Please model this.
Amino acid sequence: MINIWKNRKWVPMLLKEQYEPFDSKDYIYELKFDGNRAVIFASPDKVVIQNRHKQDISYVYPELQKIKNLVTKDTIFDGEIVMFDNGAPSFSKLQERAHLKDRSKIKQESEDNPIIFVCFDMLYDGEDITDLTLMNRKKRLAKIKDNDIFMKTKYVEEKGIDLFKKIKKLHLEGIVAKLKTSKYTINERLDDWIKIKNWQEEVFTIGGYIESEKVNMVSLLLGELKNNELYFVGKVTMHKRQGLYKKLVSQKKLKESTFIDFKEDAIYIEPKYKCNVEFLEKTKSNHLRHPVFKEEI
Model:
């Protein structure tokens, strides 16, 4: 296993993205778990965890050392490190865990609030199996038993639209469509694997902006009005060719922040303009994850 790990060529296969779910007999469909992607190198005596940037993060998740009890030979898994909260993946809780540095706190958290490795593929099974089809790799993976920190993904065939409708009702992150005959292509982004995210959409008030280092872009400061006070929810990038930009820069600049809870160096204006924004979810602090500007309202 040490030789496999030192090779360091093993990085995840990438996904393309599209907005609309689809049905196809040529694809399987899995839940997209809201976590951190990882490749796990496992042998009967050691487990090494590598993030998608090839960094060794084994010390952050000592509970995953139990995976060595599941294998009898050198094995490489691909999957997602997930923290569950009330039965649903919680990215914010996972981030709290991922940023811990103190070894004693990490050990305590691994015992009190263990994460789960949600496994959806296998790259190595005593031999390189990336040239096998997805369904053949799934057959190999099926031989590995689940335990309290290792869980294999389930999938449905053909009916991607129905699965997407169900995850929207449950407010989950999305689904992934995978071509049954796809090989595992290291660090490539092909149509073989497609993520379809469950984007949310809301209207937010613009309380100011920050000129971007990119000449043609600007960052809008977004907020929600509550009891006539503006609470900051995040920033979203917008191209200056939007007519909204001319309206914003023509406004009188305010000396103080228009937000009750945001005081950074920025250009503040009266909160009279609004825009429609897509995002994945709101964090516990009510900030937007992955906001995308759609249009002026």
The longest strand covers residues 267-279. The chain is about 15% helix and 40% strand.
